[in-house]
Amino acid sequence: MGVAVSRYSELSSNELLMRFCSTEVICPNDPFWNQLLAFNINPPSSAEEQLMFDSSTEALLQKFLQNNPQTGNLGSLVQVFITRATELLAAPNSDK
Description:
Elements: E1 4-5, H1 15-21, H2 32-38, E2 39-40, H3 47-71, H4 73-90
Parallel strand pairs: 1-2
């Protein structure tokens, strides 16, 4: 679901992830979501990759858990998904 492939070691400094986890409130209609949802990363395929992924994202997760109660960015992300899913369901089926 996107074109930008990242490495696990780069996740901790990824601007999009840092903004999502920050104290900044991101409204559901912000163009930020298009960029974040275009971000693509392959899931870990080994225990070593999983450890690298976990260690690279641990600080971001802690920051997100601390800031989300004030920002509501997870709620905004859910709203974006609901809006896009509704749009997809309402679109005419092109398989016919």
